[in-house]
Amino acid sequence: MNRVEGLLRAYCCARAHPWQAREGAVAEGGEAAIDVTVDVLHWLTAHGRDSDEALNRVQNRFESEMEDAYALGS
Length: 74
Fold this sequence. Notes:
The protein is mainly α and 74 residues long. It contains three helices and no strands.
């Protein structure tokens, strides 16, 4: 289990999302991931950070990692 799966399992339990290894789990995990993201953005905003800047940085890092993974796979 990777870090994200562990986080989402813990988050689902805390938020009463019934996410288990079964049919529909990925969709439920996806919804929990959105919930986590929204809560993190609220946390950043409450601590004086710009949520748009954070989202831009996340998108840039994600795209960079995807490019790196693609380059390694070719």
